[in-house]
Design goal:
The protein has 305 residues and is an alpha/beta fold. It folds into two domains: 5-89, Orthogonal Bundle (Arc Repressor Mutant, subunit A); 96-271, D-Maltodextrin-Binding Protein, domain 2, CATH 3.40.190. Helices cover 45% and strands 23% of the residues. The protein contains twelve helices and twelve strands. The chain has helices at residues 5-17, 20-27, 31-45, 61-89, 101-106, 108-118, 131-139, 188-191, 204-216, 229-237, 247-254, 285-296, and strands spanning 50-53, 56-59, 93-99, 122-128, 145-149, 161-175, 185-186, 196-199, 222-226, 243-246, 259-264, 270-277. The strands form three sheets. Strands 3, 4, 5, 6, 7, 10, 11 and 12 form an eight-stranded mixed sheet that branches. Strands 1-2 form a two-stranded antiparallel sheet. Strand 8, helix 9 (204-216) and strand 9 (222-226) form a beta-alpha-beta unit. The longest helix is centred in the N-terminal third of the chain and has 29 residues, at 61-89. The two termini are 60 Å apart. 35% of the residues are buried. Mean pLDDT is 88; it is low at 300-305.
């Protein structure tokens, strides 16, 4: 059995208008074509839908039963057309985003909230990864868009297109009452005299601390390593060590925990966060719209290479 949606529409129009001629005019076809479609529909379904007489047509009980079913089918077909049109226009779809914890804790919540208000039918799937893993996920098509520290792309970074996103500054976080707590600024060398609470191995923050300690000619005394800035601040507040983290993230916890935030006087403390994609031209429409949205608030910076 092959039901023709056009014939179903003609049938519904006949049922709603009460006459073949009026239904034909509504569907922009000739009355003879409408009659032929009704006959073909009856033959296909092997049931009589109308009683015909000189006075016109009269729906059978089968016709009334079919009317409800036909409306449901036609509404579903219209829904398919609308949804697919929304996908094509970028009003509906899914975007896979991989981002490092610095972007997630400082900038992405507000940025994604504004995007979702404008595009409520777009599903944004966000995954937290370290920067090198973000680059790898985008390069291997496990993510459409990546957000990472620009200087920590890993071996897959050469194949990606980088776009400016935001900048942040790293700060030193120490417990209240610590020997460094009264300082406004400090060098990493000052902090290396104490136990450090570090981020997990492979993270951009861990690599920066390793490099900074090597440049200062001092050992990196990591008392423990954590996976989130919330855990880092809790450990610092408990007096277990000092830590380095982005200022925007530190401010989230400064008023709630017994910690002090000190400017880190190092050239590498000023960082750039970047968007990365395989190719802007190859992005789905909704992913391209998200990139453009995220770039709309990006600081004006020279192109990234």
């Amino acid at each position: 059995m092959k039901l023709d949606p056009v014939s179903l529409r003609v049938f519904v129009a006949v049922m709603e208008s009460g006459a073949i001629a009026r239904a034909a005019a509504l569907e922009h076809i000739a009355p003879s074509a409408a009659s032929r479609r009704l006959a073909e529909l009856e033959a296909c379904l092997k049931v009589s839908l109308f009683e015909r007489s000189n006075r016109g047509i009269r729906p059978t009980q089968a016709a009334h039963a079919l009317l409800h079913l036909a409306r449901g089918v036609l509404n579903d077909l219209d829904g398919i057309a609308v949804q697919m049109g929304e996908w094509g226009a970028g009003l509906r779809g899914q975007v896979r985003v991989a981002a490092n914890i610095s972007a997630i804790t400082q900038f992405l919540p507000a940025d994604l909230q504004r995007f979702m208000v404008r595009h409520p039918r777009v599903d944004v799937r966000l995954q937290e990864l370290i920067s090198s893993a973000v680059a790898r996920a985008v390069a291997e098509n496990a993510a459409d868009i990546g957000i990472l520290s620009a200087g920590h792309l890993g071996e897959r970074g050469a194949s990606l297109t980088l776009l400016p996103y935001r900048s942040d500054r790293l700060v030193l976080v120490v417990p209240v009452g610590h020997a460094l707590a009264r300082r406004r600024r400090a060098r990493l060398a000052d902090a290396l005299a104490f136990d450090l609470i570090g981020m997990h191995p492979g993270s951009a923050m861990h690599q920066l601390l390793q490099r900074g300690a090597a440049d200062a000619g001092q050992p990196l005394r990591l008392r423990m390593q954590v996976t989130g800035y919330d855990a880092l601040c809790l450990m610092v507040a408990a007096g277990l060590g000092v830590g380095v983290m982005p200022q925007g993230s530190a401010e989230l916890y400064r008023r709630q925990l017994a910690i002090r935030v000190i400017a880190l006087d190092e050239p590498w403390a000023a960082r750039r966060l970047a968007l990365c994609v395989r190719s802007m031209d190859a992005l789905p429409t909704v992913a391209r719209q998200l990139v453009e949205h995220l770039q709309a608030d990006a600081e004006v910076e020279p192109p990234m290479t």
